[in-house]
Design a protein that fits this description.
Two copies of one chain form a homodimer.
Chain A lengths: L1 H28 L5 H42 L6 H35 L3 H39 L6 H48 L11 H41 L12 H23 L9 H30 L3 E6 L3 E6 H26 L4 H9 L4 H14 L1 H33 L1 H23 L4 H44 L9 H42 L12 H15 L1 H22 L3 H42 L1 E3 L2 E3 L4 H38 L7 H4 L16 E12 L2 E12 H17 L5 E11 L1
Antiparallel strand pairs in A: 1-2, 3-4, 5-6, 5-7
Helix pairs in contact in A: 1-4, 1-7, 2-3, 2-6, 2-16, 3-4, 3-5, 3-6, 3-13, 3-14, 4-5, 4-6, 4-7, 4-13, 5-6, 5-15, 5-16, 5-19, 6-7, 6-12, 6-13, 6-14, 6-16, 6-19, 7-8, 7-12, 7-13, 8-9, 8-14, 9-12, 9-14, 10-11, 10-18, 11-18, 11-19, 12-14, 13-14, 14-18, 14-19, 15-16, ...
Protein name (chains A, B): Putative K(+)-stimulated pyrophosphate-energized sodium pump
Pfam families (chains A, B): H_PPase
Main location (chains A, B): membrane
Chain lengths: 804, 804
């Protein structure tokens, strides 16, 4: 039995990938149009490839550098195995592969969607959603395949494929954390770099093309127009894919780590039909089934009526989505009942060991699925077309850009209220049900249908691109009408998808945070210690500064683009008449270089700060690893809390501004008057959208990566700060018999031996005072022997001589 | 000796108030001008009085309501004495009195400054700064007088004026917390209401007057112009005064609370020349000396040269400021050496008792003074005229309002970097020097020169008003030139003053936070407990939502004003020709009502949430007060961290936008071209300033009150969550003698009595299992008797019967 279950997720991932391959070849077989359509789509494809190539070059250097650093750590810290480097490279490779695959299919599907829209809307949806499905299954399949395979190999290597002890499994999972770190590092490049790329190209193309030269958007005479379209794929498709790939892997990993500690709490070993590792395998199994259910869900997304509108298309997506979620819910019940012991013991901080029945773990997964659903509705309420908050922004546009901007900012800020209360309730309740294992499984359940979520997400930018191609190749208006319907639905799914990404990042970070605390073996993170509180402040500041850096980067990169487009307009003869050919590649190159250059500083901030804190802590507190671990924990909590807030604020403000601007296209009533595009109010709304663009496409989504990567780095550093104390230090229960009421003086001589790197020294310590004092001194000393964080140090109390 | 020291701050406060009275009568004796000048200034004075009157009416209801609630608490919680209600009313009264005094003198000084500016610049500075001095000394004098008198009376009442025990002193200080709560509640009204008032009037006056009717700013034909000028006093003078009054009182209180715990850590009593309460008296003594040094500082602020420019005026202010800070530094050294024991024992969380020499406490005060100085420079760097960040915003204005807004937001966000690192370093180092007592004393030292800071702050809006009066009464241009010099310096001091206010609020909140933890007697706040972490999230969200509510309130209140001004223009005949008299009072009334109405929701949010958390906690966890106290602590930490970030972000972004706009007055070089007022770039900068206005004058400064009030409410709730465990529950050390290595089973029967409200019941509990198990069960039981948070419950273990 156990052999099947451990391989089951691998099989399911392979099924997902096989289905993806079939779908992919179907999409590629579709008619790719002709003439100008094909030409434009080829430019976009080549531009996307150019970005990928440049990115991979930079990534190679990064991966080498990070591998060396990880190797160094593995030499210093005995419990960190050199295999972490292999896992890291493996994770980076899988993440890059998924990104590559997703971007390629997206840039191939766009033109095919345009072509399909020439025949019918149902066909157009089928093609565009088909492309999205390939993307979604590719990402989810590779994530599960990579993580599970890595786990099986490491489990074989370290434990010969059979349970030995929590300590050994911890080493397996610590090494596996390298896989997650690799995936998330690539996500940093993809999400932040992609966000800068897409907005730099967008702003650059608009400023010179629309404003200075007076040519329409998506005009092929604009040298930056291809870069702009590439940007949609780089940011919305590849960026989102890498983000969710990272969340997916990290969530499952964190749940496995916490599952391992459940086994520890149950006495260090359990008897079940899965080789005694049921709680560790469960999150992988849920992920595996999620892929299958996503496939089923994607098959349900179809419309029949060629006259369908947004509502029907959205409805088709909803059916697929809800069915996959409902199936996941059922699977969670069955799997939890099947794979977990009927009753588990879990350690609750400050409350001791508790008996937790397996049904409570199921309730925790329900919490996760509910959060995933509710967050979408909340996000839609604050950012959707025609909702109260968006209409309020529209009204405020009538008194100028200033009031529009204030209204948008306020909307984004207010939207943190229900969202944070939802998250807080989710943390609290899933913890109440099944401890931090429950929190991690809530996240796992939510992430199970990642493939479906991504399919829905990716279909939006594909349709957007399809519309652009229709426009540029001057198709019949009905074609653009059909792609517009898809694009409009895509805008909604993009906003709700961002909500889902935030929720997943938040729960993932919490699970990682919990895993961190158990890895380091500290007894909680006490913010009443001033250094910890100081780091909470510093952590809270990082997302704010990160966002500002990302926003400034967009500005700088956009200026580079502006100068290049101006130069081409001036130097290429006949470009405006359409006889000269603009140098698209040069603009793509500028966007690419700017994106990769500008993401350095935010990247260094993300990776450097946790390391700097540990170094600073070591400098000040030496070997008090407990305190340093708490400081880093405080920092992680600060980044997570602040990062989640700024992600919600920026995404929702940006989304609301965007749709406030879009409202003018169909006309809006302001003070009893219908107002349209071109009005002063519309211009004010455009200003708001300009502010919102980097919010929602660059800095906002980057927050997800920031918080997850911060927590992952913490997890990888954790062993340095004293994991596995059990293996290093012998727990001792000193027999202290004192009469604390007595005023008589006492003296205790303690003999203890310290073993460091195989060398043993024996020393003596004398405590004097009243009996109560001596007792408390002895107890304090006993405590230090138990929590000494250095792994290669072993303290044994040989003898205690008490004289009353 | 002791009798002198305890009364010394009272005497110094009285000296300060006497000096204030002399200065006040000097200012009032100055020539108040004639004709139109006098008429306009009378309108402003009356408008300010009208606001105060309406505010006090509302406050009366609030104070009555809050008093009833406090009285209810004092009946439920035995250790909360009914006198807390008296202290609360006392604190509210003193704070209101200080605000009243400050606003009256400010509105009397403005016209006298205009008149003085007709003779010379030195005279104008003397008058305007004289008004500021009256304001500063009034606030600081009343704060010290009120707090110290309340302390002396409570000390007499509860302890007969002599040290008995830490527990009794805790009751004194808990009751004294009522004084601080009263002061801070008034500050909430003054700061938030004032912020809404000033911006509603400003925006309303501009939108209809400048934009629709095309008349200049400060034109007496505009019905809202008086409300606008009243707003400057209500927001910048009264709001800032109430804010610092609250910080001042809360800081000293928190330091006293922590001083009390230093005495506890030293064994519960110390021998010194101050009746054994030296550490408690020290913060009051520093505050008292600070008043005297502020007087000396204000006397040094003068210029002689009538041709002086901004630099000389700023220089004069700097001399006064630095001298008062330097004198405070010396006084801190002397007082610390004189009043504290040579060596103290302080309990450091997780590190146990440490010996702390008094010089380390002095170092902590140095940290506070340094932070106060550095924060001003940092704030000036990000917001000052001609600085790099502000010039960058100017450059970005050339590409439109969108890029200007993005640049301003990014500047505000980046400015959190040095500021938060500074705060983090301050927390960490002052704690490292002398524990949380050190943190509180750092704050106390920084706040010691509050009178001087407020004098410098208040002189700005006075000069601003003076300039307005000069304009409206059509004075000679030289008069306006002179007031402009003062106004320009006032703009810089306003921005740095806001930085100082944030720093003081941050350190005060931390000190209160520390006092909270010691009051509740919990052993730290562990964010690894999910409910605590959830509350950290919720706390982090509150400042964001609070800011949004405040911003929306400004918008709503401004619309009320717009409709009223439009109505008057339409309905009052001859108003534009200057023959009809606008109804100023009506506009003042609208601003007043809107401000008071709109501040309700943010106020309820601030006061309601901590209470809701405790109720929710009680509902879920019943009597587990430890956990509920930690949850509230997590909430407080979230509010503080997020509130400080949003305060810095909003204040600095607003300040930077303001000065970016002002840069155009003298002309700026953009892309090699000189650009002035009226250009497109300037218009873009005006949009940025519109966004920044509520940021820097309403929501940003409100953060200070939010975080302090939250922590104060926590402090007042603290006793409910189990303070004074020592008095309620007998600490018992159970003798447990077990052989944990043994596999033999054991049984322990424990007999214990529980006394609740005088009734005693005796029960038995039996533990069975291996010896190790029984031991840990016994220990766990013993622990619950020790931490049972209910004060009226007494658990005594009568007998333990162990059968091995």
């Amino acid at each position: 039995m156990e052999s099947i279950i451990i391989y089951l997720p691998v099989i399911m991932a392979l099924v997902g990938l096989a289905f993806m391959a079939v779908k992919r070849s179907w999409v590629l077989k579709q008619n790719a149009g002709d003439g100008k359509m094909k030409e434009i789509s080829d430019y976009i494809y080549e531009g996307a490839l150019a970005f990928l190539k440049a990115e991979y070059k930079l990534l190679t250097f990064f991966v080498i550098g990070a591998s060396v650093a990880l190797a160094a750590i593995s030499f210093i810290v005995p419990t960190t195995h050199i295999l972490i480097v292999v896992a890291f490279i493996f994770g980076a490779f899988f993440s890059a592969l998924a990104g590559n695959m997703g971007m390629k299919i997206a840039t191939k599907t766009n033109v095919r969607t345009t072509q399909a829209a020439r025949t019918s809307l149902p066909q157009a949806l089928k093609v565009s959603f088909g492309g999205g499905t390939v993307m979604g299954l590719g990402v989810a399949g590779l994530a599960v395949l990579g993580l599970t395979t890595a786990f099986i190999l490491l489990f074989q290597f370290f434990m010969n494929g059979a349970w030995t002890s929590t300590e050994d499994m911890t080493i397996v999972l610590e090494t596996l954390a390298g896989f997650s770190l690799g995936a998330e590092s690539i996500a940093l490049f993809a999400r932040v770099g992609g966000g800068i790329y897409t907005k730099a190209a967008d702003v650059g193309a608009d400023l010179v093309g629309k404003v200075e030269a007076g040519i329409p958007e998506d005009d092929p005479r604009n040298p930056a127009t291809i870069a702009d379209n590439v940007g949609d794929n780089v940011g919305d498709v590849a960026g989102m894919g890498a983000d969710l790939f990272g969340s997916y892997v990290a969530t499952v990993l964190a749940a496995m780590v916490l599952g391992n500690y459940v086994i520890k709490d149950m006495g260090g070993a359990i008897q079940d039909a899965f080789g005694g590792i049921g709680p560790i395998l469960l999150p992988m199994a849920i992920a595996g089934f999620g892929i299958i259910f996503s496939i089923i869900g994607t098959m349900l997304v179809k419309i029949k009526n060629n006259e369908a509108k947004e509502k029907e298309v959205q409805g088709a997506l909803n059916v697929g989505n809800w069915v996959s979620i409902a199936l996941t819910l059922i699977a969670c019940f069955v799997l939890v009942k099947y794979m977990l012991p009927e009753t588990m013991q879990m350690e609750f901080f400050g409350e001791g060991l508790k008996d937790i029945s397996s049904i409570r773990v199921f309730y925790a997964t329900v919490v996760g699925l509910v959060v995933g659903g509710v967050i979408s509705s909340v996000t839609e309420y604050y950012t959707g077309l025609g909702t109260k908050p968006v209409l309020a922004i529209v009204q405020k546009s009538s008194t100028g850009a200033g009031t529009n901007v204030i209204a948008g900012l306020a909307t984004g800020m207010i939207s943190t209220f229900p969202t944070v209360l939802l998250f807080a309730a989710a943390i609290w309740s899933s913890y109440a049900f099944a401890g931090f294992y429950g929190v991690a499984l809530a996240a796992s359940a939510m992430m199970a249908t990642t493939a479906m979520q991504l399919a829905i997400d990716a279909f939006g930018p594909i349709s957007d691109n399809a519309g652009g191609i229709a426009e540029m190749s001057e198709q019949d208006p009905i074609v653009r009408e059909r792609t517009d319907i898809l694009d409009s639905v895509g805008n909604t799914t993009a906003a709700t998808g961002k909500g889902f990404a935030i929720a997943s990042a938040a729960l993932t970070s919490l699970a990682l945070f919990a895993a961190y605390v158990t890895f380091t073996g500290i007894d909680g993170i006490n913010i009443f210690k001033a250094p910890v509180l100081a780091m909470l402040f510093v952590g809270g500041m990082i997302p704010v500064v990160f966002s500002a850096l990302a926003m400034n980067s967009v500005g700088k990169a956009a200026m580079d683009m502006v100068y290049e487009v101006r130069r081409q307009f001036k130097e290429i003869p006949g470009i405006m008449a359409g006889t000269g050919k603009p140098d698209y590649a040069k603009c793509v190159d500028i966007s690419t270089k700017a994106a990769l250059r500008e993401m350095m500083l935010p990247g260094i901030l993300t990776i450097g700060f946790p390391i700097a804190i540990v170094l600073l802590g070591k400098l000040v507190y030496g070997s008090d690893n407990q305190l340093i671990a708490e400081m880093l924990g405080g920092y992680m909590a600060g980044v997570t809390v602040s990062g989640v807030l700024w992600a919600i604020f920026q995404n929702n403000a940006g989304g609301a501004w965007d749709n406030a601007k879009k409202s003018f296209e169909a006309g809006v009533e302001i003070n009893g008057e219908m107002t349209y595009k071109g009005s002063d109010a519309h211009k004010a709304a455009v200003t708001g959208d300009t502010v919102g663009d980097p919010f929602k496409d660059t800095s906002g989504p980057s927050m997800n990566i920031l918080i997850k990567l911060t927590c992952l780095i913490g997890l990888v550093i954790a062993p340095i700060l004293g994991g596995h104390m059990e293996t290093g230090v012998v727990e001792q229960d000193v027999q202290i018999e004192m009469n604390v009421e007595s005023a008589e003086l006492a003296q205790a001589v303690i003999t203890y031996s310290t073993t460091v790197n195989g060398e043993t020294t024996t020393e003596e310590k004398t405590f004097k005072g009243t009996q109560a004092e001596v007792k408390s001194q002895l107890e304090a000393f006993e405590k230090t022997t138990q929590v000494s964080g250095e792994n290669d140090k072993k303290v044994v109390i040989e003898k205690i001589d008490i004289k009353k």
